[in-house]
Design brief:
With 601 residues, the protein is of the alpha+beta class. The protein has three domains: 36 residues; 78 residues, no CATH class; 341 residues, DD-peptidase/beta-lactamase superfamily (Beta-lactamase, 3-Layer(aba) Sandwich). The strands form seven sheets. Strands 2, 3, 4, 5, 10, 18 and 19 form a seven-stranded mixed β-sheet that branches. A five-stranded antiparallel β-sheet has the order 12-11-23-22-21, with helices on both faces. The protein has a three-stranded antiparallel β-sheet with strand order 1-8-9. A hairpin with a 5-residue loop joins strand 18 and strand 19. The relative contact order is 0.10.
């Protein structure tokens, strides 16, 4: 076989030249690509790089707290009724645990768990998550961390730096921080506070009902943001942009904790004593409108708000439930008639036991009796339906309606709490005397307990209607403090009319149906009401249901407080004189002693 050296040489030169050409074109392509990336697409890739390194983290604000007074209208000492407590969820990653018994021993020692249960979870080496405990207090977590740190140091002994566990997560233990809303007084005043529930998305926390609901935006604050750069492990390296976090505002309430607790517990006992479906009480400072106590029963624990049979228990009936108030309204109607100059306390009329109207309606006294010649003081004391109809008969229907609106009926009270109901007095705008007549003794119209309380408070407060309020201060995280000042909305009746009605209401307690509301040594003014309950199915009044309420104030000449007690469908007694009145008397006795008011009789 013969080979040509020249031909082989030519072939080798050709291959070398071809390879050089390929390399040259590859270099040109790389240069073009680099030019395209580094020059033409520079902004795009810089942005991509920043996105990979940048981090945006939300900073959650701390929810504002709520405080009540601990001593007679002073803010020197405050008691928290809604605060935030830090709890931890303790979990493990069994795949990272190399000392299962040691870690089990720590959990058992500090969390008081069963060893067998914990050890079984720790040895689940095919799982990356196992829950050990929820809602663990910070103090316990700090103690466990010290013990676990000692264990980590022991695990790292003799290992090269690259293999050492740098933190507790590396040895398989995790602590997740949770900030939970906590209500120390539990069911006492729960309707006033409301609770922190969940939003429509199922995970965001949102205030519901009561003050938590009404003041949601102020209490929640505003989420802040950190914008910075992170390393490959996600650790924040630097942060110089973003929005500052703004913690929620704190609310200082007008509620006196001692008064609240005493009134609520008396109400709770009354619910059982009189076998009522529900009950409500409000105590208001007469001259200012500051609410010192507000509660309802049955109640609930806002810490465990989901553990209720029905969501109706959340309703704050002192402002939400509108009802026909019955004879407590006679005090207001009598005030209108006296203020219009149509009657006087000693005006006498002949009670024949019933009054017939042109419409065909007949209204009788609740006792179905005729009382003969009686004056207006006795009308109020004996709670005569026919007498109050007589008293208001010469008051123009439109004027009577206007007075009722000026007393605050038919519109919200504007108290800063959720569920403020306006009630319904629309029947007064209808033609015919029958609607004014029934309204004069509290039927055919609806009011809320707070509306009824504030109307009677107008009599106690020399004819002035005040603005009820329950938040005395709002303290924002930036240091700004907003104070609520007492406010007189308007003068509804003259001072002289108010004084006459006050004396007549004292007569009700001294000589009328309300003697059990009295307190020895004091002039107490008040009015009972045993109201019928309309049946929405029949359109008639239910013969088996009544609402008992009592509204009053003390002491008569310079009242410190005005109070309403309401019991829904009590079955142990028939009239409010034997249910709501004695509850009022019990709480009033405490209040007069608590405020150190000297006897005035």
């Amino acid at each position: 076989m013969h080979f040509s050296l020249t031909n082989n040489y030519k072939l080798s030169v050709f291959r070398i030249n071809a390879l050089q050409g390929v390399i040259f074109f590859l270099i040109i392509a790389i240069i073009v690509k680099l030019f395209y990336i580094q020059v033409i697409q520079n902004d795009h890739y810089v942005a991509m790089g920043l996105q990979q390194r940048s981090v945006i983290r939300d900073i959650s604000p701390e929810r504002g707290r709520m405080y009540v007074l601990t001593s007679q209208n002073t803010s020197d000492e405050l008691y928290p009724i809604a605060i935030n407590k830090v709890y931890y969820e303790v979990s493990i990653n069994p795949t990272k645990i190399t000392r299962p018994q040691n870690i089990t021993d720590i959990f058992v020692n500090y969390l008081e768990l069963e060893e067998e249960v914990v050890l079984a979870k720790v040895k689940q080496d095919n799982k990356q998550y196992e829950l050990i405990a929820k809602d663990v207090a910070l103090e316990k977590v700090d103690e466990m961390k010290l013990a676990l740190e000692e264990l980590r140091v022991d695990i790292n002994k003799g290992k090269p730096d690259i293999e050492q566990a740098s933190n507790l997560e590396a040895i398989g233990v995790n602590f997740y921080k949770n900030v939970l809303r906590y209500y120390p007084d539990k069911e006492v005043g729960a309707h006033l506070i409301g609770f922190l529930g969940y939003g429509s998305d199922g995970y965001s926390r949102v205030g519901s009902y009561g003050l938590e609901g009404y003041w949601q935006n102020d209490l929640a604050g505003y989420t802040g943001k950190i914008v910075g750069e992170a390393d490959i492990a996600g650790r924040l390296l630097a942060a110089n942009e973003g929005d500052p976090v703004e913690n929620g505002a704190d609310l200082i309430l007008t509620i006196d904790r001692t008064v609240q607790y005493t009134a609520c517990k008396a109400l709770e006992r009354a619910l059982a004593t009189y076998d009522a479906d529900s009950s409500s009480v409000i105590v208001m400072e007469t001259s200012t409108g500051a609410i010192r106590a507000m509660c309802n029963y049955p109640s609930f624990d806002p810490n465990e708000y989901s553990q209720v049979e029905s969501g109706e228990v959340y309703n704050n009936n002192t402002v939400y439930h509108s009802y026909e108030p019955g004879s407590v309204m006679k005090a207001v109607s009598m005030a209108i008639a006296i203020d219009q100059g149509r009657i006087f306390p000693d005006t006498i009329y002949n009670d024949e036991g019933e009054i017939k109207f042109a419409s065909g309606h007949t209204i009788k006294n609740s006792d179905l009796e005729a009382h003969g010649l009686v004056d207006m003081k006795e009308v109020l004391a004996a709670s005569l339906n026919t007498g109050i109809i007589f008293a208001t008969s010469e008051v123009n229907n439109k004027i009577f309606e206007d007075y009722m609106k000026r007393f605050g009926f038919g519109k919200e009270t504007s108290i800063q709490i959720s569920q403020d109901n306006r009630g319904n007095i629309n029947s007064l705008a209808k033609p015919g005397d029958i609607f004014k007549a029934t309204a004069s003794y509290g039927q055919g119209i609806t009011v809320t307990p707070l509306q009824m309380l504030n109307a009677v408070n107008t009599i106690a407060n020399r004819g002035n209607l005040v603005q009820p309020y329950i938040v005395s201060q709002i303290k924002y995280s930036n240091g700004i403090v907003e104070n609520t000042e007492p406010k007189i909305l308007r003068q509804v009746i003259t001072k002289n009319t108010a004084a006459q009605l006050s004396a007549m209401m004292v007569h009700v307690v001294d000589s009328g149906h309300a003697s059990k509301a009295g307190v020895e040594g004091y002039y107490v003014a008040g009015k009972t009401g045993t109201a019928q309950v309309p049946n929405p199915k029949t359109g008639k009044y239910d013969i088996n249901k009544t609402i008992h309420n009592f509204v009053g104030f003390a002491p008569n000449e310079d009242p410190k407080f005005t109070m309403i007690v309401k019991l829904d469908n009590p079955t142990a007694v028939s009239f409010s004189a034997d249910s709501a009145a004695p509850v009022f008397g019990e709480i009033a006795k405490f209040l007069l002693e608590y405020y150190q008011i000297p006897p005035n009789r």
